[in-house]
Design a protein that fits this description.
By secondary structure, the chain is of the alpha+beta class. The protein has 3 domains: 13-130, Butyryl-Coa Dehydrogenase, subunit A, domain 1; 150-249, Butyryl-CoA Dehydrogenase, subunit A, domain 2; 253-391, Butyryl-CoA Dehydrogenase, subunit A, domain 3, CATH 1.20.140. It has 11 helices and 7 strands. The protein has a 4-stranded antiparallel sheet with strand order 2-3-7-6, with no helix packed on it. Strands 1-4-5 form a 3-stranded mixed sheet. A hairpin with a 2-residue loop joins strand 2 (150-156) and strand 3. The two termini are 35 Å apart.
Length: 403
């Protein structure tokens, strides 16, 4: 069922056709597979094959390299976010893998050399190669963990040696290339490291390298299971100098993470809209439209989804009109706001539909688990504090918020 929101977003005929292509794939192919991928906790490989065959796997690759030319620094990021929203409506895990792929390509476009772009973009456009970015090296163990995570990166002649392990390695076993966020100062990657910014590197790793192995025993979460975010081990993996992306520290110094933060909000919006549409169909099939409490739940859910669209459009316009400094902090605002709007929508839809809506393989049950897990990707308390710091003139880093 389509929503009846009046959204102040005008799309060109080309954009509308693109959105229809993604929406049709999501509804007809991705959504019917979502339960099986979630149950088995395996990477959604068929969905990426469909995206490639439809010519949709390279949305942020510049047109001169064969892509669609979208992205925050390409003048049209809203279309990318709306594509993500449609994918998330079908499967949040797929949307997370998709985010990792597209965000990696944005980094290559913004920081890579011409030779790197020719080589890697060609693999995406012509062969359907999938990318991802891995930073996860938590330095404190959870109470149930016996593993210690972290990598060491050593400069050697002709390149770098990476040794150790990364957790939360999304798309492990499905992606062909990973951008590794590592530090020559020691474990921690980028998200958890406190060492000098100049020690931070982005290294493109060919995941077919035999020195890599995947530990399937660790990843058994409540939600986002099909992201296949396993532990990946590097056994003295050599990465050549030609695979160094940008200059040391550039990822943090230039604030690249800030253009990805609102991308998460687009995924949350997709979850909210999917829950809302499920609830509309469910309560209608049960002839409960006259219940005043259900009416309230439906009304607030619709308002929340509409607010999410407005926020996303607002931040996209900042990126697209070159107001990048404003957009960086506004991205944190929309991510914070959309987390709470989406969680409220899902809660209200469950109240409207009742306990049977949480009986597998209900899409609402999966959305509830996936969203509950995915919003932990960043710590919302830290994110909100960062927004407060900026308003109070305090020093802040809008890139990372401790998970």
């Amino acid at each position: 069922m389509e929503t009846n929101f009046v959204i102040p977003i005008e799309l060109s005929s080309t954009q509308q056709n693109l959105m229809k292509a993604v929406r049709d794939l999501a509804r007809l192919n991705f959504a019917p597979r979502a339960h099986a991928y979630d149950h088995a906790a395996v990477f959604p490989a068929e969905d990426f094959t469909d995206l490639f065959r439809a010519g949709l796997l390279a949305p942020v690759v510049p047109s001169e390299y064969g892509g669609l030319g979208l992205g925050p620094y390409r003048g049209d990021v809203l279309t990318l976010w709306l594509m993500t929203k449609e994918i998330a409506k079908a499967d949040l895990s797929l949307a997370r893998c998709w985010e990792g792929h597209t965000n990696s390509l944005v980094l290559i476009d913004g920081m890579g050399t011409h030779e790197q772009k020719e080589r890697w973009f060609s693999g995406v456009v012509r062969r359907g190669e999938i990318w991802v970015a891995w930073s996860g090296e938590p330095q404190a163990r959870a109470s149930s963990e016996r593993l210690q995570f972290g990598t060491t990166t050593t400069k050697v002649e002709g390149g770098y040696i990476v040794d150790g392990s990364k957790a939360f390695a999304t798309s492990a076993g499905g992606a062909h290339w990973a951008i590794l966020l590592v530090s020559t100062a020691g474990p921690g990657g980028a998200r958890h490291s406190t060492d000098a910014v100049a020690s931070q590197l982005l290294l493109a790793c060919d995941l077919s390298d035999p020195s890599l192995s995947i530990d399937l025993s660790w990843w058994d979460p409540i939600g986002m299971r099909a992201t296949a975010s396993h532990v990946v081990r590097f056994n003295r993996t050599f990465i050549p100098d030609a695979n160094l992306i940008g200059r040391p520290g550039q990822y943090l110094l230039d604030g690249w993470q800030t253009c990805f933060i609102p991308h998460y909000a687009a995924t949350f919006l997709g979850a909210a809209e999917a829950a809302y549409e499920f609830a509309i169909e469910y309560v209608t099939s049960q002839s409960k439209e006259a219940d005043p409490y259900i009416q309230q739940h439906i009304a607030q859910s619709a308002i929340n989804v509409e607010a999410g669209y407005l926020w996303l459009y607002h931040v996209a316009r900042m990126w697209e009109t070159g107001r990048h400094a404003e957009a960086q902090m506004a991205g944190s605002r929309v991510r914070h706001t959309m987390e709470h709007l989406a969680e409220e929508v899902v809660k209200r839809c469950i109240r409207a539909c009742g306990a049977r809506s949480l009986n597998r393989p209900s899409p609402l049950e999966r959305i509830y688990r996936d969203l509950s897990f995915y919003v932990r990707h960043d710590n919302d308390d830290h994110l909100l504090a960062t927004i407060g710091k900026s308003l109070l003139g305090q020093q802040n880093d809008p890139s990372f918020h401790k998970p």
